[in-house]
Amino acid sequence: MKKTTIIGKKQILMVAMVLALGAAVWLNVRYATDGTDYSATSSVADEDLGNAKYVANASVVTEDDYFTTAKKEREQQREEELKTIKKTLNDQKSTESQKKLAAETTTKITNRMEQESAIESLVTAKGFKKVIAVLSDDSCSVVVQSEDELQKSASAQIVDIVSSVTKIKLENIKIVTVK
């Protein structure tokens, strides 16, 4: 009699990927918003209801806002990568090794997104208003907004945060300041 398993390695891997993707989406929603409460009621008179008005959004990218532009470009690049991976996973012609590589790449991307978000949050908690972390396989660049040159203690804190979150060697961590 052949014994069938309901939960196998493939199912566990798929659940782990779905959970990682869900966590990445949650982190993106959590940290990508600017904190503006758009659900508040307005005091517009009834006669103005229905009239179209232009409403400026606080997250509109200006030409000189490096941080907003860089984050937006990073998100667009990741979306394109994930679309390509999804096509590979859904393609009937893809081999098992291609699908396995696509699943590993998805996990790698979501882990990188989580790490970048964690670095940005922790560095922001140290008092920097604008931060962006850019991870690669073996290096990390952290761009912070600072009017003055960074103190050695601030640089050490940033390097410590990056190395504790990513396990990247100290010599592969770069800090760039933008005024």
Key attributes of the depicted protein:
mainly alpha; single chain; Helix Hairpins; 4 helices; elongated
Task: Explain the overall architecture.
This protein has a single domain (10-29, 65-178), classed as Orthogonal Bundle (Helix Hairpins), CATH 1.10.287. It has four helices and three strands, in the order H-H-H-E-E-H-E. The termini are far apart. The protein has helices spanning 9-32, 66-90, 96-125, 152-166; strands spanning 131-135, 140-145, 173-178. The chain has a three-stranded mixed sheet, sandwiched between helices. Residues 37-63 have low confidence and may be disordered. The protein has 179 residues and is mostly helical. It is 53% helix and 9% strand. The protein is elongated. Strand 1 (131-135) and strand 2 (140-145) form a beta hairpin.
